[in-house]
Write a structure and sequence with these properties.
The protein is an alpha+beta fold. The protein contains 18 helices and 40 strands. Among the domains are: 100 residues, Rossmann fold; 61 residues, ATP-grasp fold, A domain (Dna Ligase, domain 1, 2-Layer Sandwich); 129 residues, D-amino Acid Aminotransferase, Chain A, domain 1; 119 residues; 79 residues, RNA polymerase II/Efflux pump adaptor protein, barrel-sandwich hybrid domain (OB fold (Dihydrolipoamide Acetyltransferase, E2P), Beta Barrel), CATH 2.40.50. 26% of the residues lie in helices and 30% in strands. The strands form 9 sheets. A 9-stranded mixed beta sheet has the order 14-13-10-11-12-15-23-21-20, with helices on both faces. Strand 29 and strand 30 form a beta hairpin.
Amino acid sequence: MTTDRDATISTVLVANRGEIARRVFATCRRMGLGTVAVYSDADAQAPHVGDADAAVRLPGNTPAETYLRGELIIEAALSAGADAVHPGYGFLSENAEFARAVLDAGLTWIGPPVAAIEEMGSKVAAKKLMAAAGVPVLPELDPAEVAETHLPVLIKASAGGGGRGMRVVRDLAELPEQIEAARREAESAFGDPTVFCERYLETGRHIEVQVMADTHGTVWALGERECSIQRRHQKVVEEAPSPLVERIDAARNSATAPGIDSSAEHRTDGVGFPGASGGDRPGMRDRLFEAARLAASAIGYTGAGTVEFLADEAGEFYFLEMNTRLQVEHPVTECTTGVDLVRLQLAVAAGDPLPAEPPAMRGHSIEVRLYAEDPAHDWQPQSGTVHRIDIPQVAAEFEPLTRTGIRLDTGVLDGSVVGVHYDPMLAKVIAFAETRTEAARLLASALQRAHVHGLVTNRDLLVRVLRHPAFLAGDTDTAFFATHGLDTLAAPLAEPADERLSVVAAALADAAANRASARTGGGFPSGWRNLPSQPQRKSYDSRRTGIHDIDYRYVRGRVTVDGHDGLEVVSAGPDRVVLSVPGARGPVRRTFDIARYGDLVCVDSPLGPVSVRRLPRFSDPADQFATGSLLAPMPGTVIRLGAAVGDRVSAGQPVLWLEAMKMEHTIAAPATGVLSALNVEVGRQVELGVVLAVVDPDDAIDEK
C-alpha cells in the first residue's frame, strides 16, 4: 500500500453497536487509530462502549430513537473529534442519505460511493441494472400481479436484508396478509415499507462472493462463501469455500481430464456469459467471480461489498442482491485468505490502491451464529442476563486465524444483558482448519464444551448441524431444517438419562454448597442424623423433561442416590461433582461442573449442557396460573390483536402479535375455547412471563 492518500484517517466512529463495533475497534487499535462509540441508553454498559477511546450517548432505547438517527451520529462524530465513520452492518450501513450526510459534514465515509449505495439500495432497481450488465437474475414479480402459477413466492423488503420483511407464500389467499406483515417489518427495520416478490426456489443454495475494489480501478473477487443453512431467511451457518462450488468444479475438472469427452449432452450454456459452452465454459467459481466483478464494475463500486446469488444443484446461479457493506460472515473469508477486510476498508477509504491480484484461498473456515433464541419453540428470541460465556480453545478474537483454531467475535461478556430492542446474536464462533471435516469437528467440539449460562440458545442445534451426515457431505441447501427435521436438530445434546445424571450432580453440589455455607454443623452431611432416616430431597424443573425429584442419603459415610443403583459419588463439592456410573464393561467416571445464579443451576459436562431451575421446598399458590393462560414468551410490544373477550377461538389461532428484536411473533390460543380475558392493548409493552390472555378450554367449561 502507498502512503499517497486522498484522505487522512486518525479517529474512526463506528455507527453501530455490539459485535461489529468491537470488530472494527479491534482493527483500529492494531492500526494505531483512535475510536469513538455511540450507544443507546439500553447499551450504556455494553462492551463496545468500553472498547472505544470515547463514547457518545444517543438518548433513547429503540433503533428509531438511536442508531437510525443519522444526524445524531454525525453530531457525535464531530463532537468527539472523529474524522471518519464506519457504518458496520445493519442500521444505516446501506443508507445513501446517511452516507451523503457524512461526506457533507467533512467526514470520511468508510464505504462505497453514495451513487453505488443508491443503485443497489432498491432490490427492484438493482435487478434491472444487473440484468443489463449481463449478470443472471430471477425476474421480479409485482405483488399485485402474483398468480397461482407463480407460487411459491418470496416476499422481500426492497431496502434491507437480514431476514426482515421476508415471507414465503404458498397459498394465494395468504398473500395480502403476508405482504402487510412484511411491510410492517420492513418499515420498522429499515424505515422503508417497499416490498416485492420473486419466484421461491425451495431447495436453492445461497452463494455469495466477497468483492473489494479501490479507487484506482482494481476489483477483487476475494473468494466465495456458502450460507445456505438459514432460519427465517437469516443465515445461521456460513463457510468458505462453498461445498457446492467445490463439488461442481471438481466434477468439471474430472470430466475434462484427458480421455474424457467434454462435449457430453448434459452440458449447458453459461448463464449471463454469451458464447460460453461445452469445454470452453469456465468453472462455477470462475463464473461467480466474473459475475461479481461485473456487478461491482457496473456501478463504479469501491470498498468492501458482497454479491449474493441463488444457485441450484447443477451450478446455475442468479443474482439476489448486492450488500454495499461488510457482511456478518466476513470472518470466514478473512480466515481463508489471511486478509483483514476492515483494514482494507480503511485503506481504500484513505485512497490506497489494492495489489493487482487478491491472495489465494487456503484451507476451510466455518462460522456459526450463536443466538439467544429457542429453536424448538418457533425460534423465540430470549432476553435477560448472560451470566457466563466461555468458548474453549479460542486462538484469536476479531482477527484472521493463521493456523488451525477457533476465532471468537462477540458483542457480549459475562454479565451482559440481552435486551428486546436489538438482534439477539451473542457471538460468532469461527473455526479454521486445513479441511472442511476438521473445521466442522473442531467447531462442534468447542461449542459443546462451551459454558453459556443464563439464556436459552441455539448452541445444541448448531452442534447437531455440524455433526449431521448431510452437512458433512456438503448437502446444505436452504431447506436443511425442513428436510432433516427441526425437532430432531433442536433436541438437547444431553439425552434424557444424561440430563437426569446431570441433575443428580446439581443436587449433590447444592448439598455441598449448603454444608459449606452452614454457620454450625458444616462438617456434618446435609440432613445428618445418628439414626437411619428418610432421604433428603432436592427438586428441579427442566424445560425439557419437567420436574426432577432427587432423593439422596448418607449411609455409613457414603452418599447414595435413590433410583441410581451402581452409582458412586467419587467427590462432591459446590462447583464440581465426580460420579462413577455403570458402563457396558465397568464403571465410568464422569465430571460435572456446576454454577448457580439464583435459582438457575447450570451443569456442564461432556454429556451435554443442562440448565434447570431449583424449586423451593414449599410452593406459593400465587405462583400458579389459570389453565389456558397465554404467557408472554419474551418482552415486547403488542402490535395487533386477533380476537376480543368473549370470542370463540381455535387451538393455534392467533390471539395477538408481539414485536420483539425487530421481528413479529404470533401468540396463539393453546386450546379451543372462549377468550375469557385479554390483559393487553395495542402499543403496550409487556415483560417476560406476564399473562397476556386467558382461553377457557371447552373441556374445562364442560366440567364447570
